[in-house]
Amino acid sequence: MDVRDVRTSPGPLRFVPLAVPGFMLLVALLIAPVAPGKATDGLYRIDADQFSVYHNHISCTKRLSSATCTVSVDGKPLIVTLDTDPRTLVCEATFDGERVGCARTFDYGPGSHRVSVTGVSVPDAVAADLRDRFPWWGTLFDRYWVQAGLLFIGVLGPAAAVASFLWAGRPRDADGRLLVAVPVAGVVGWALSGFALMPWERFLEFGPSLLLVPVVLVMTGWAVVVGRPVTGRVEWRVALALTAFACTVFSSVPVVLWISLAAGIPD
């Protein structure tokens, strides 16, 4: 083998084991401003028969575990009062001073709740305007998050396999530096994503997540494989691509679960 054909640097292959923690942090930062778990003052969503109202249109005041939330609907106040204690499913509502039905449907996280009200009727044009004001990401979180997570896994796995096959085309020496970089990147990605998606006090209560243990272990094992000498032979590149696919898919599942739990997204 010509010495000039041997690379002493791992080249672009060094980035493949970092794809999962990197994407974890990227997704967390993208959804952090609108994550349900960040809304800790009472209500994240109100559903009525004709429309739904999102958190940023609801004004809440909270005292101890009781929250009173108000939103203007057709120029009339819709007021919801609820106990934010997850063990107490108390919910009351009035619309324009008249009592209407109210029920807690589920909680996105501590202090971030969703209720359904009945008996609230508005003109069709008003209801259509309220539906238009409901943000697309609210629908993503409540209806399509599982599909989005599967798409994330379905894209990242094959991408890691193709990248590994292409980037392993030239021989290179072994490089063990990734053994430190990958576990550190996993822990840093987990910590930063947690702080981005939930209030810091909830993050401290949440504690270290066991979901990320297999991610760090698998990514470290993948770093060991990438750190070995690269021959550049086709059969070795195919084996590396299959390993990249398996490791990435296996690691992506707990990452999606972690983001879902940290962000307060319903399953």
Automatic annotation (TrEMBL):
Keyword Transmembrane helix: yes
Keyword field contains Membrane: yes
Lineage top rank: taxon: Bacteria
Transmembrane segments: 12-35, 144-166, 178-200, 206-226, 238-261
Keywords, sorted A to Z: Membrane, Transmembrane, Transmembrane helix
Protein name: Uncharacterized protein
UniProt source species: Saccharothrix variisporea
